[in-house]
Each structure stands twice: as C-alpha cells, then as structure tokens.
Task: inverse folding
C-alpha cells in the first residue's frame, strides 16, 4: 500500500517562504510520520533540512518568480515582469507536466506558499489545493501598474480557485481567496538551549548588549560593519558568510563553529540570547521574533507593499525601532543607543500558526 503523500510548493522568492513552510512541514512529520512529503522549490536543501529533520523528496521546480532582486532591498521590476510573462505564457505546458507528476505519485493534497499557478495545477490533477500566506503576489504587483495589471488579473483568477487559505498574521486582505481561515504566527522553535548557544559562541555580554544581524536569504550589499568598532561593549552576531573578521562580531557560518553543533544554528536558535534583532521587513524573521518576544530594529523598505503591512504589524504587536535606509547604511548607528519602542497595542498575536496548519493537514489524511 502506497504512503499518503503531501505535495508542498514554495514560491521562488528569497528564503522566508521556505522557512515558514518548512516549520509547518516539520510539525506535520512529527504528527504523522508516515506521510510522504514532496517539496517543490528552488530553495536549497540545506535550508529545508535546517527545519525538517525527517526524510522528504526535493523536486527542484519554480512556479513563480516573486520579485527579482539583487539583495533584500533592491528590486528589478523589468526583469520581474519579463519572467512573470514567460511563466504565464508557458503555463499550459507547466501545468501538464506537473499534473502528470502529481498523479504518478498519488498526491492526496497540495499545500502552497504561494505560487498562483498551483491552484490550476491542482484542479487539473483533481487534488485539493490549500495555501498559506500573509499576502498574495497580486498585492505586490498591483502598486506597480502598467503591464503588471494583466498579471494581477491572472493571479486573481488563480487565487480564486484556492480551496482553503490559512491567512497568517501581519496580512493584507487577500480578497481574491474565497475560503479564508485565520491562524497564528508560524516559525520554528529554538533547537538549542540559551546556555549552549552562549557557551559554544563564547558570548559573555548581557542580553541587552547582544545584537543579531539577519537580512534573509538574499542578504544585503555593503553592510557598514565598520560601525561595530564604536560599540566595543556589544556583541554582534551575523549569518553573513562574507562578513569581516572583527573582535565583537560572531560569524555563525565561519569554519570556527562548523564542528561545534550537530546542526548549524538558525537565526531562530540565536534570537533568545539577543536583546534585539536588526533586520529588514520580512514575515519569517518578524514572526519568529514575535513568537519569542524579541525586539526588532527594522530598516524601512520602499516600493514593496508587504513591507508597510509588516512594519505596521511590528509596531502594533512587538517591541520595535524603525530606521531609514540612510540611518543604517550612511549613519553612525546611534539608533543602538536609543530605547526600543513598546508595542502600540496591548493585545497579543496568536502563536499557533505552525501547529494549526499542520494539524489541519494531518486531519485531512486521517
């Protein structure tokens, strides 16, 4: 008898979508070890395995483009439009190819975050398509106008075919979706104790003087690391493999720590020993920080509609500091000496998104 099979499709954009889906996939495996996971994504296997410890089948496929970027803040709209038009033009062959794969592997359910064309693939394959996200790509492209308007209409048609949307916090309305179920924040749980992290990284600064720098899978160009010498009483931590060797900068990915951990720590593993996280607007970083009640310093991001939604959410629900790109790239980082701002709202966001989505998937296969 063949194993029940879940097909997971992840949008081809940065690492954030892969992180939040992987946290859900890991929970699904925990609840239903016999369920076979097929994960279709261009995200690297090491990233998925940093959350998913069990077996899965990786299918390298790109069903959308997201936004073409040189780094986490800079976008190429012309290249994005060109790739979107190419995907739309070739959608029939893309659908036919994937339908054959889905049928051959007896997939019982598709979970997508959040390639629009997956709903059409699912319908053609006769399989339900569930989605999870805090925004739809139509929300991003609509502001850009021009030839993106046709793309928005096509995306709306796709999203209108979704059988069930798990809408995450820090979201836009996502009005194209006919069946919406609100859930809590998603993300992973720290794998190592705070004492172990502090011991192996030799961190002796107090919590308020320990700072994590993390800017997603695309990273940032020209991070002004020279500012760190002004803060000799503080310990900084980075996942940037190209970061310089500085006395008060821990480079997690350096060879020095490669053999210290059975699995190299992720940002979520390091957050609890930090008094603040410096980042850019990104759902997964914000969500994991909010789940752990870690203060966030975020750079503003222009031209990307989701960024404003995320920044509003962080200001409403988390301890925060919002800075301009000029303050980060050209300033002297005096913002580090200023107090964090408290959340504007007293209510708390639910933190059960990972568990709620995973349980729904497991219940479907019962």
Result:
């Amino acid at each position: 008898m063949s194993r029940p099979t879940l097909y997971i499709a992840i949008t081809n954009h940065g690492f954030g979508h892969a992180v939040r889906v992987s946290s859900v996939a890991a929970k699904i495996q925990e609840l239903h070890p016999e369920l076979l996971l097929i994960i279709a994504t261009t995200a690297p296997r090491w990233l998925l395995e940093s959350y998913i410890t069990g077996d899965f089948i990786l299918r390298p496929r790109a069903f959308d483009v997201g936004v073409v970027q040189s780094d986490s803040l800079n976008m190429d709209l012309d290249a994005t439009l060109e790739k979107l038009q190419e995907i739309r033009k070739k959608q029939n062959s893309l659908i036919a190819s994937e339908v054959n794969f889905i049928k051959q592997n007896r997939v019982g359910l598709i979970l997508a975050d959040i390639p629009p064309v997956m709903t059409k693939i699912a319908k053609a394959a006769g399989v339900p398509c569930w989605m999870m996200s805090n925004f739809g790509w139509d929300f991003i492209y609509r502001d850009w106008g021009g030839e993106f308007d046709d793309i928005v209409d096509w995306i709306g048609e796709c999203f209108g075919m979704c059988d069930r949307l798990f809408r995450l916090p820090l979201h836009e309305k996502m009005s194209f979706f006919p069946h919406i179920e609100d859930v809590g924040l998603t993300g992973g749980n720290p794998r190592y104790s705070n004492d172990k992290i502090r011991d192996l990284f030799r961190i002796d600064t107090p919590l308020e003087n320990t700072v994590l720098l993390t800017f997603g899978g695309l990273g940032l160009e020209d991070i002004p690391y020279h500012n760190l010498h002004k803060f000799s009483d503080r310990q900084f931590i980075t996942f940037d493999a190209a970061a310089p060797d500085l006395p008060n900068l821990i480079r997690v990915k350096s060879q020095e720590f490669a053999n210290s951990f059975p699995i190299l720590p992720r940002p979520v593993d390091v957050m609890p020993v930090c008094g603040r996280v410096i980042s850019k607007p990104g759902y997964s970083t914000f969500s994991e920080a909010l789940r752990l009640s870690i203060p966030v310093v975020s750079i503003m991001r222009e031209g990307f509609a989701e960024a404003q939604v995320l920044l509003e959410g962080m200001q409403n629900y988390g301890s925060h500091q919002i800075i301009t790109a000029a303050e980060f790239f050209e300033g002297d980082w005096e913002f580090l000496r200023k107090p964090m701002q408290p959340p504007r709202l007293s209510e708390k966001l639910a933190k059960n998104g990972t568990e709620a989505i995973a349980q729904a998937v497991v219940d479907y296969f019962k």
